[in-house]
Amino acid sequence: MKKCRARIVSKKELCEGIFDIRLRTEIAKDAKAGQFVLVFPNDPSRLLGRPLCICEADGDELRIVFRISGLGTKEISGISEDEEIMIEGPLGNGWNIKAAAGKEVLLLCGGIGAPALLQLAKKLGSQKGKEGGPKNVKAVLGYRNAPMNTFLAGDFENAGAEVVIASDDGSVGIKGNVIEAAGEKDIDCDVIFACGPMPMLKAVKSFADRKGIPAYISLEERMACGVGACLGCVVKTAAKDAHSHVNNARICTEGPVFEASEVIL
Ligand SMILES: Cc1cc2nc3c(=O)[nH]c(=O)nc-3n(C[C@H](O)[C@H](O)[C@H](O)COP(=O)(O)OP(=O)(O)OC[C@H]3O[C@@H](n4cnc5c(N)ncnc54)[C@H](O)[C@@H]3O)c2cc1C
Ligand code: FES
Fold first, then answer.
1. Quick check: CB of 232 below 6 Å from ligand 2?
2. Which residue of 25, 178, 189, 241 has the smallest Cβ count within 10 Å?
3. Range with lowest mean pLDDT among 65-74, 119-128, 243-252
4. Is residue 136 classed exposed, middle or buried when 0-12, 13-18 and 19+ CB atoms within 10 A define those classes?
5. Sequence spans of domains, the chain
6. CATH code, residues 97-218
7. Protein residue with least CA distance to atom 4, ligand 1
8. CA 192/CA 204 separation, integer angstroms
């Protein structure tokens, strides 16, 4: 894990309030699918880094895709090409890629949860049908409505996933949430990887429990230190932690990816 300055290579607004930034940084070469970085706003009054998923990592380039949700992400969205910003990472555990070996994989992406799954889709797409790789990869991407412009859907297709689109209001793709859309398309799977809002992840967990399918979920929680020191990001776990004997895990350190059966949501 490193903390260093990264140069902005490009910046795009994918749709209103959702930004796509590519950074040149040595952190990229160590980054794994499902990990995240802390991005530090340049304004010194905002000391804490903002956790953002590694959407893509290629060579010395890292891609982040985020929604403006408060002052920190607003400031980060205003940074210009060629400027620099402080980042720290890679952080967290990342997806359990081995769980996809020989399996029909379903990626469930709710709104701004999609960036957490793109690098995984690329990795699985490149291994599809090979020894240790998945049998097939399908991705259901859920959006609130059509103006969200189905951002990243084309990237999932380019990664080799069969893509299904869903939206809450039916203005694009199948009307309903990602689980309803997977049901409507009769998608069969042996393993699920999911990221999205908490109500969606709760639904994924109970769907996976009912079907007896392993599911891996990436949790987003308010974070402060981001490196395991403040206990500001704990999630309840089914089993006691062997070290501290409590039913808690830190999302920033033991997560953000958990097997759904390990956590109580
Ligand atoms: C592991 C992880 C990965 C994430 N990846 C993405 C991503 O790829 N794209 C994306 O759009 N969003 C992502 N988020 C959510 C993103 O971190 C928050 O939207 C962002 O921190 C909000 O900061 P702010 O200053 O704009 O908002 P404010 O509400 O002003 O933030 C105040 C403080 O609360 C923290 N905070 C607020 N909301 C969240 C949140 N949901 N999660 C964690 N900390 C929060 C901020 O970091 C800051 O320290 C991720 C969160 C986590 C935990
Ligand atoms: S944010 Fe401090 S322990 Fe996770």
1. yes
2. 241
3. 243-252
4. middle
5. 2-91, 97-218
6. 3.40.50.80
7. 52
8. 9
